[in-house]
Structure formats: C-alpha cells, structure tokens
Amino acid sequence: MGVKLIYLFLRISFALVWFVNGFYCKILGLVPRHEFIVAKILGFDYAQQFTIAIGFAEVIMGFWVLSGYKAKLNAATQIVVVLLMNILETLIVPELLLWGSMNLLFAIIFVLLIFINEFIIAKRIT
User: What backbone torsions phi and psi does residue 35 show, to the nearest 5 degrees?
Assistant: First the structure.
C-alpha cells in the first residue's frame, strides 16, 4: 500500500470517527450515554441542546478533516480537543465511559495516529 493511500485511508477514518460520534451518537441521540456525560459535566438543564451542539461541531470537524484545509492546524485542533475531552471525562465521569479509564488510552492512540499521519506521513507525500 502506497504512502499516499495510507495517508488518505487514515484521514477518511478520522473523519468517520467525527461523523459517527457527532451525527449518530449526539445529533440523532442514538447513544444516550453521550447526553448523560454532557449532563454530568455541564448540567442537566440544557444537556440535550449542548449534546446536539457538540454533535454539530464534531460533524463540522469531520468535514474539515476531509477537506484537507489547513491540515496541520486541523490535526493540532483534533489532538487538543480529543485529549481535553477525554481527560475531563475520565476525571469527572469515568463510570459513564464505554471502557472506563481505558477510554483515555484509546484517545491517546487516536491522537498519536493523527499526529503520525499529519506530521510524519504527510511529509513523505509532499
């Protein structure tokens, strides 16, 4: 598999993660655990609205990933958002996470892949 193909495969995979989590889990509300997490962190009064807003932001992130526009800024933004979100959730609501504290490990692997794809692999195809 060529380096460019690996780069594109990973970029599409990252976008799919954002789309699925944003649209399916949050906007459509098909994974109620996400709204419970938001409620425990931001409060119950507007948890549904915050969850939907976060979902829209995640869908937009997915489109940004696919677009390739300012890819390094996008990668840095993804890394910061994913780490902050997962650290916060691990500290405040570990009982609501799919894999508990292990979620943070998966987040670290995810951001390492983003970093490798955009700051190492991308250099080989330019």
Answer: -70, -35
